[in-house]
């Protein structure tokens, strides 16, 4: 059993958004880059794309507008600097390099030599400054969008739930959950679970009711029946009858069987 790479990257982006301190934030970035580095053809591609941008940046830097008068040269150079800065940020290697610097710096063998850089005016237990967090998040999201075409269709056969298609991918099977445009309760239960950073936890029915179903009145039996339907659909497709564990009552929970998360 394996999780699709795209799902892992999505979860790490979400985990980064929710990270409470700078050390956790840096560790998520490190885990994100570890995955990116497993797709060398993607890194080769963005290196190639970056070459063209770097050539253009070099041309802009060489053109100082010396043939213009002082006033026109000043306007020319202001526009040139704006273009150069934009190209610098558009270079896909710019995002990768910035995140890779964190990945390299946070490694146990390197961290002692990078403390001043990693924690310049805050500590490991302090939140990452808002501007830093927003910038790193932007880099992660840019790389995620660019790497998707490199992951291949085999990604779909990982362990995942595609909420747009309402398909559960499990045991190399594509298991339809909602068969039409109207999404079922079973669909929303799986969406709730797979939107989580931690698939191994228990998910209380009440939490699903309040956060995903948006129910004013909590009815555990409705969620219990939806869980039964998920279990039935998985069994029909795979003959596995213990994909999920769930119980009854107002304090009931649902949990993916841990052996399928290994």
Give the key terms.
three-stranded antiparallel beta sheet, single chain, mainly alpha, Arc Repressor Mutant, subunit A, 10 helices
Radius of gyration: 24 Å
The general outline is elongated
Q: What percentage of amino acids are in beta strands? A: 5-15%
The stretches of 5 or more residues where confidence is low (pLDDT under 50) are: none
CA-to-CA gap between the ends?
7 Å
Output the structural class: mainly alpha
Order of helices and strands: HHHHHHHEEEHEHHEE
Number of strands: 6
Number of helices: 10
- Enumerate the strands of the largest sheet in spatial order, edge to edge or round the barrel: 1-2-3
Largest sheet geometry: 3 strands, antiparallel
Helix content: 55-70%
Return the average pLDDT rounded to an integer.
Answer: 87
Number of domains: 2
Q: What's a concise summary of this model?
A:
This protein has helices at residues 5-18, 22-36, 40-62, 70-90, 92-105, 115-118, 130-151, 185-194, 205-213, 220-238; strands at 160-162, 167-170, 173-176, 203-204, 244-246, 253-256.
Structure description:
The protein has helices spanning 5-18, 22-36, 40-62, 70-90, 92-105, 115-118, 130-151, 185-194, 205-213, 220-238, and strands at 160-162, 167-170, 173-176, 203-204, 244-246, 253-256. It is mainly alpha-helical and 262 residues long. The chain folds into two domains: 5-152, no CATH class; 159-260, Arc Repressor Mutant, subunit A, CATH 1.10.10. It has a three-stranded antiparallel beta sheet, covered by helices on one side. A three-stranded antiparallel beta sheet has the order 4-6-5. A hairpin with a 6-residue loop joins strand 5 (244-246) and strand 6 (253-256). The chain starts with a helix and ends in a 6-residue tail after the last strand.
């Amino acid at each position: 059993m394996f999780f699709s790479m795209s799902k892992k990257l999505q979860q790490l982006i979400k985990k980064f958004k929710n990270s409470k301190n700078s050390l956790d934030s840096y560790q998520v970035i490190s885990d994100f880059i570890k995955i990116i580095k497993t797709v060398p053809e993607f890194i080769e591609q963005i290196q190639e794309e970056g070459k063209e941008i770097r050539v253009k940046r070099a041309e802009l830097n060489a053109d100082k507008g010396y043939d213009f008068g002082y006033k026109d040269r000043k306007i020319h150079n202001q526009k040139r600097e704006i273009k150069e800065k934009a190209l610098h940020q558009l270079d896909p290697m710019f995002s990768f390099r910035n995140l890779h610097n964190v990945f390299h710096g946070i490694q146990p063998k390197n961290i002692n030599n990078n403390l001043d850089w990693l924690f310049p005016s805050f500590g490991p237990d302090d939140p990452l400054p808002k501007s830093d967090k927003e910038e790193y998040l932007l880099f992660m999201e840019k790389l995620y969008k660019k790497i998707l075409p490199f992951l291949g269709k085999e990604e779909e056969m990982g362990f995942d739930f595609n909420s747009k298609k309402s398909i559960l991918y499990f045991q190399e099977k594509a298991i339809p959950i909602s068969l039409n445009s109207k999404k079922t309760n079973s669909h929303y239960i799986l969406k709730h679970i797979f939107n989580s950073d931690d698939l191994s936890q228990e998910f209380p029915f009440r939490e699903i009711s309040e956060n995903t179903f948006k129910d004013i009145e909590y009815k555990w039996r409705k969620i219990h029946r939806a869980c039964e339907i998920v279990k039935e659909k998985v069994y029909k497709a795979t003959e596995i009858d213990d994909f999920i564990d769930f119980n009854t009552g107002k304090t009931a929970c649902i949990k993916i069987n841990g052996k399928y998360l290994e």
